[in-house]
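Researcher: We plan to redesign the surface later, but first we want a full-length starting point. Tokens attached.
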């Protein structure tokens, strides 16, 4: 057997062993279950909303109940002092109670949902609690941290305040 034939045979054996070893190493492990998620607590959400309004240069006002054109009542959690607009943080129970009186929940990349009061002048953004979720921080992989969740809520509030200004909401 020539020297080159022996080297070729040894190389072929090593390649075969390496391929077999990498194939075994590439086997997927057991499928992991996704981390449990939670919605942002209403009390914490309202604090984030108030802080964001202050950063945006508006003074948060008290919550109030507003009659909708459907004759149902929407609780606006944070109003804006001296203005007829505000923010309603709607829980799943609130949404079920209001039914078709408010628009359906927006998806992640869709526009925020706005509603008008029965007076035609007051306007409110409906922020659905189900859109603000975070995981329980177990393990190495996180779908969304609490900080990211609160940041998303703050961006939505900021966007609404900017929209209200540019549209001249009273």
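Model: Full-length starting sequence:
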């Amino acid at each position: 057997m020539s020297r080159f034939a022996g080297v070729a045979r040894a190389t072929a054996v090593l390649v075969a062993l390496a391929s077999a070893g990498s194939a075994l190493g590439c086997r997927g492990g057991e499928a992991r279950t996704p981390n449990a998620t939670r919605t942002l607590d209403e009390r914490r959400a309202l604090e984030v909303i108030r802080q964001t309004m202050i950063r945006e240069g508006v003074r948060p006002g008290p919550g109030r109940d507003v009659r909708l054109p459907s004759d149902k009542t929407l609780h606006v959690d944070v109003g804006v002092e001296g203005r007829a607009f505000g923010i309603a943080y709607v829980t799943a129970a609130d949404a079920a109670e209001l039914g078709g009186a408010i628009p359906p929940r927006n998806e992640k990349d869709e526009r925020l949902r706005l509603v008008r009061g029965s007076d035609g002048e007051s306007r409110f953004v409906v922020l659905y609690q189900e859109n603000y979720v975070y995981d329980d921080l177990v393990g190495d992989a996180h779908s969304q941290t609490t900080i990211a969740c609160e940041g998303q809520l703050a961006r939505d509030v900021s966007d609404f305040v900017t929209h209200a200004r540019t549209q001249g909401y009273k």
